[in-house]
Design goal:
The complex is a heterodimer of chains A (531) and B (213). Chain A is α/β, with parallel strands linked by helices and 531 residues long. Chain A has 14 helices and 22 strands. Chain A has 3 domains: 90 residues, Beta-grasp domain (Ubiquitin-like (UB roll), Roll); 176 residues, Nucleotidyltransferase, domain 5 (2-Layer Sandwich), CATH 3.30.420.480; 243 residues, no CATH class. Classes of the chains: A alpha/beta (531), B alpha/beta (213). Bound molecules: cobalamin (B12) and FE2/S2 (inorganic) cluster. Cobalamin sits at the interface of chains B and A. Chain A: It comes from Candidatus Chloroploca mongolica.
Chain lengths: 531, 213
C-alpha cells in the first residue's frame, strides 16, 4: 500500500492508504485534521498543505483560483483536491483545532449507494433539503447528513456520548436519573448539547447550512431514548420491563429544533424501541443488513458494551442481548482504548516479537478490540496462553509486553479474564438463539458484524478463539455502525419505515436471564478455543 | 431605459464577463444612476441569481469566482482609487469570521466607507473572533463590522460583544450584515446594529459620536 507521510512538529506520521480517497478524507480519519469550511469541493480554499516530495498530480481549476503562482511553485496545494496514488510527503499549513467529533470511518462509505430502499419524495421547502440520521448509543453518538433530493451522504460525525461523565454504563445513568430529577435533566441536556455540538462541527467544517435540515431521524437503545425523552426511564431498572414495550417517546421532539439549529419546520422522528432491551438501533441494524430479505438463515452480531444478536431463520427474527462488558470497545482493560488514532488494531507475532499496527500511525496509546483478538489468538498459537486463560510460566507477573508508547502497553491476566467474559456472553447468546431456532452454525448463510470492531477484525483469529462460529470466513461480513446505516435508510425511505414495522411483528425476544442452562453454556464459551 | 442597461450589467456579472461589466457600469453612471442603485439593483441582484448555482448539487466554482472578479472590477469603477483617500473620519474594523471565506460584500462595505473618509482596517476573511478583538483593542475603532454569508458563523457573532465588554471595550459598537445575518435581530445576535446593505452600515456609522461629518 502507498503511504502518505505527514510532517508535524511532533514528528512524522505514516498513513497507508487505498487510492481513491482525497488527502483531506485520509487526514479526516485521523487526529491530524486540516482546516476546512466546505465539503471538500475546492470552494473554501482553507485546506492548504505543502507537498514536500512525491507526485500529487496536476492542480485542479479550484486550486488555481485559491493559490497563486508563487504558492503553487512552493508546492502549496489544497488537500481536498489531491487524490494520492503513490507515496507523498506532506506538511500541513493550516491545522484544524482538535474536536470531540470525528469524521465517520471511511469504511462506512461503501454503503453510500448500496441502500436497496426507494427514496422518500420530498416537497422541497427549499432548493436542497437535508436530512440527518442519528444513532444514539451508550458510548458513542453517530450522525450522518444526507441530501434528500440526491442520493448521497454528504458528511458524518461520531464522538463520545457526553453522558459518560455520569457513568459509562446504562444502569449507572438510569439509577442517577431515577434518584434525582435534577440529574435526569442534566443527563438529557448532555445529549441534547452533544448532538448540537456535533451538528455544529458538521456545519462549520463542511460549510453546510443546518437550517436546510428538514428531517431528523434518531434510533437508539431503549435506555438512551428514555433518558433523552425524560420518560419512564425508571422502568428500565426493573427486569420485568425488559421484555415489554416501554412508553419512552418524547412528548414533543420539535422542542429540539431550536437547540439543534434545524429548519423551523423540521420534522424530528424518534424511532420507538421494541422493548426494554431491544432498542430501535438493533432493528435498524437488521434493516440495513437486509437480514430478513431471503429465507436463508443469517445472524447479526452488534458488538458493544451491551452486545445485541439477531438471528433470522427464514420466518422469525430471534433477538437477544448480552451485557458482556466493554472489553471489545477497549474499556476496563489496563491498556484498552476505542478504535481511534493511537490504538493498536492489528497484531502479528514474528519470531516471538509482536508487530503491532497503530491507527493513524501515532505512538501507540493502547489496544482496541480487534488488536486484542489478534493478540490473544497469537498468544495461544505461540503457547504463551492456555485456552483456560492462564499465561505460560515464562510470562512475567505484570503481563505480556506488547509495545512501548507513552507508557508500556501490556496485557494482564485480568484483561484476558475480562475478554473471556465478554466473548462468552456473545457466544452464549448466539448459541441460545440458534438452539431456539433449531439451527446450527453451519446453516448460516451470512454472519454480519457491526460495532466496535469496524473493518479491522481478523475473522480467522476470531474463529480460532471461539469468538465467532467456525463457518467459511467468506460468509462473515464486517460493517461499522449498522444501526446508523439503518437509520439512514429510515431517514430516506418510507418503505424502510414500513419494513421496520414488519420486523416488529416478526420478532421473538429471548431473555438470556431466563435461560435454564445459561451457566453451563457460559462456562463452555469461556474457553479460548474454536467453538 | 435604465432597466435595460441594468439588465445588461446583471447578465454580464452572472456570466463573469469582466469587460462588459465594466463598460455597463460606466454607462449606467453616465446615465446618471447613483452608485447605491447600481449596487443594489445590479450587483446584489446578480449575486442573488447566482445563488442557485452555489448549491451542493450544481456547484460551479469557476462560474462564481469569475462573477466575483467582475463584481470587484465594477466596484472599482464606482469607487476609483480608494487607496489614495486621506482618512478624515474614525476607524472601522471589518471582518468575515472563521470558516467564512465570502468577502465580496465586505469589500463593498470597505469601499463605501473608505469613499466617505473612514479609515478601514480589514481583518480579511476567515478571521477568528479572538484576532478580531485583538485588532479592536489595538485600533480603538468606532465600530467593528461583521459580514456573514454562511450561517455557521452565527455562534461566533454572538461572542463578539461579550468578549469585547469583558476587556472593557464597551465604547466600540458591533455591526452585522450579509445574507446569513441580516434576517436576525440585534438581540439574538447580541450586536448593536444589523444592516441590509452597505449603505445602511454607512448611515449607522454616521450617527455614532465621532462618526458624523
Ligand atoms: C459568491 C459566492 C461564493 C464565492 C465567494 C467569493 C468571495 N470572494 O466572496 C465562493 C465560490 C468562494 C463561495 C464558496 C462557498 N459558498 Co458561497 N456563495 C456565493 C454567493 C453566490 C454570493 C455571495 C455574495 O458575494 N453576495 C454578494 C454580496 C455583495 O452580498 P453580501 O455579502 O450580502 O453583502 C451586501 C449586504 O449584505 C451588506 N453587507 C455585507 N456585509 C455586511 C456587514 C455589515 C456590518 C452590514 C451592515 C452590511 C453588510 O452589504 C453588501 C452590499 O450591500 C452566495 C449566494 C447568495 N445569493 O448569497 C453563496 C452562498 C453564500 N455560499 C454558500 C456556500 C454553502 C458556500 C460553500 C460552503 C460551498 C458549498 N455549497 O459547499 C463555499 C465555501 C464557503 C465558506 N466556507 O465560506 C451558501 C451559504 C449557505 C448558508 N446560509 O450557510 C450560499 C448562500 C449559497 C447557497 N444557497 O448555498 N461562495
Ligand atoms: S477547499 Fe478544500 S476543504 Fe474547502
Amino acid at each position: 500500500m502507498p503511504v502518505v507521510t505527514i510532517k508535524l512538529d511532533e514528528g512524522e506520521r505514516h498513513l497507508p492508504f487505498e487510492p481513491g480517497v482525497s488527502l483531506r478524507e485520509l487526514l479526516d480519519t485521523t487526529d491530524i485534521r486540516v482546516r476546512t469550511a466546505c465539503r471538500g469541493i475546492g470552494a473554501c480554499g482553507l485546506c492548504r498543505v505543502q507537498i514536500e516530495a512525491g507526485d500529487a498530480g496536476e492542480p485542479t481549476p479550484g486550486e488555481y483560483l485559491h493559490l497563486d503562482d508563487a504558492e503553487l511553485a512552493k508546492g502549496f496545494r489544497l488537500a481536498c483536491q489531491i487524490m494520492p496514488t503513490s507515496d507523498l510527503q506532506v506538511t500541513i499549513l493550516a491545522r484544524s483545532p482538535t474536536s470531540a467529533w470525528r469524521n465517520l470511518p471511511l469504511a462506512n462509505r461503501r454503503f453510500e449507494y448500496l441502500s436497496t430502499f426507494p427514496r422518500r419524495n420530498v416537497t422541497p421547502k427549499m432548493l436542497n433539503p437535508y436530512g440527518v440520521a442519528i444513532d444514539l448509543g451508550t458510548t458513542h453518538i453517530s450522525l450522518a447528513l444526507h441530501t434528500l433530493i440526491g442520493h448521497q451522504r454528504l458528511a458524518g460525525r461520531y464522538g463520545l456520548n457526553p453522558q459518560i461523565a455520569v457513568g459509562s454504563d446504562v444502569i449507572t445513568r438510569l439509577a442517577a436519573a431515577s434518584e434525582d430529577a435534577e440529574q435526569a435533566r442534566y443527563l438529557r441536556d448532555l445529549v441534547v448539547n452533544g448532538i448540537a455540538e456535533a451538528l455544529f462541527d458538521l456545519g462549520l467544517r463542511e460549510g453546510l447550512n443546518l437550517e436546510q435540515i428538514i428531517r431528523l431521524t434518531l434510533v437508539g437503545n431503549t435506555a438512551m431514548i428514555a433518558l433523552l425523552s425524560g420518560r419512564n426511564y425508571t422502568q428500565l431498572l426493573h427486569p420485568r420491563y425488559w421484555m415489554q414495550a416501554i412508553d419512552c417517546l418524547p412528548e414533543d421532539p420539535q422542542i429540539w429544533i431550536d437547540p439543534w439549529g434545524l429548519h423551523p419546520e423540521a420534522e424530528i422522528v424518534i424511532i420507538p424501541p421494541l422493548a426494554g432491551f431491544v432498542g430501535s438501533d438493533v432493528l435498524a441494524g437488521v434493516l440495513a443488513m437486509n437480514l430478513t430479505d431471503t429465507s436463508e438463515p443469517a445472524l447479526l452480531i452488534d458488538f458493544g458494551t451491551n452486545s445485541e444478536m439477531a438471528l433470522w431463520d427464514g420466518t422469525t427474527l430471534w433477538v437477544t442481548s448480552a451485557a458482556g462488558g466493554p472489553a471489545f470497545e477497549g474499556s476496563g482493560l489496563r491498556c484498552g482504548m476505542p478504535a481511534e488514532p493511537g490504538a493498536i488494531y492489528r497484531v502479528t507475532l514474528n519470531d516471538g516479537v509482536f508487530d503491532p499496527l497503530v491507527i493513524a500511525d501515532t505512538a501507540p496509546r493502547g489496544i482496541c478490540g480487534s488488536g486484542l483478538v489478534d493478540l490473544i489468538a497469537n498468544l495461544i498459537s505461540a503457547d504463551l496462553l492456555t485456552s483456560v486463560g492462564r499465561f505460560a510460566p515464562q510470562v512475567p507477573n505484570e503481563g505480556v509486553f506488547i509495545a512501548h508508547g507513552e507508557r508500556n502497553i501490556v496485557l494482564t491476566r485480568k484483561d484476558v479474564d475480562l475478554f473471556q467474559r465478554a466473548k462468552a456472553a456473545i457466544g452464549t447468546g448466539c448459541q441460545v438463539l440458534l438452539r431456539e431456532a433449531g439451527l446450527s452454525a453451519q446453516d448460516l448463510g451470512r454472519i454480519c458484524l457491526g460495532g466496535a470492531f469496524g473493518r479491522f477484525l481478523d475473522v480467522r483469529n476470531a474463529q480460532a478463539i471461539g469468538l465467532l462460529p467456525n463457518i467459511n470466513p467468506d460468509r462473515v461480513e464486517l460493517y461499522g455502525n449498522t444501526a446508523l446505516l439503518g437509520c439512514e435508510d429510515l431517514l430516506r425511505s418510507p418503505v424502510a419505515c414500513e419494513h421496520l414495522n414488519d420486523l416488529r411483528t416478526q420478532t421473538t425476544m429471548i431473555n438470556l436471564g431466563q435461560c435454564d442452562d445459561f451457566d453451563e453454556l457460559f462456562l463452555e464459551n469461556l474457553f479460548l478455543q474454536p467453538s | 431605459m435604465h432597466n435595460a442597461l441594468m439588465q445588461k450589467l446583471v447578465q454580464a456579472l452572472i456570466d463573469g464577463d469582466q469587460a462588459t461589466a465594466v463598460a455597463q457600469t460606466h454607462q449606467l453612471q453616465a446615465a446618471g444612476l447613483a452608485r447605491e442603485a447600481i449596487i443594489t439593483d445590479g450587483i446584489e441582484a446578480a449575486m442573488t441569481q447566482l445563488d442557485a448555482r452555489c448549491t451542493v448539487e450544481q456547484f460551479n466554482l469557476l462560474e462564481i469566482m469569475l462573477a466575483g472578479r467582475a463584481v470587484m472590477s465594477a466596484m472599482k469603477v464606482l469607487y476609483p482609487g480608494d487607496a489614495a483617500m486621506f482618512p478624515s473620519q474614525g476607524t472601522i474594523i471589518l471582518a468575515s469570521l472563521e470558516g467564512d471565506v465570502h468577502d465580496l460584500g465586505k469589500n463593498i462595505l470597505k469601499m463605501v466607507l473608505t469613499a466617505k473618509g473612514y479609515r478601514v482596517v480589514d481583518c480579511g476573511k476567515d478571521c477568528p473572533v479572538d484576532r478580531l478583538i485583538a485588532t479592536a483593542r489595538q485600533e480603538a475603532p468606532l465600530a467593528v463590522g461583521i459580514s456573514g454569508l454562511i450561517t455557521t458563523v452565527i455562534p461566533q457573532v454572538r461572542q463578539v460583544r461579550t468578549k469585547m465588554h469583558a476587556l472593557g471595550l464597551t465604547q466600540i459598537k458591533v455591526m452585522a450584515g450579509g445574507a446569513a445575518l441580516k434576517q436576525a435581530t440585534v438581540q439574538s445576535l447580541q450586536v448593536d446594529f444589523i444592516g441590509e446593505t452597505a449603505f445602511d452600515c454607512l448611515h449607522y456609522v454616521e450617527t455614532l459620536p465621532g462618526g458624523a461629518l
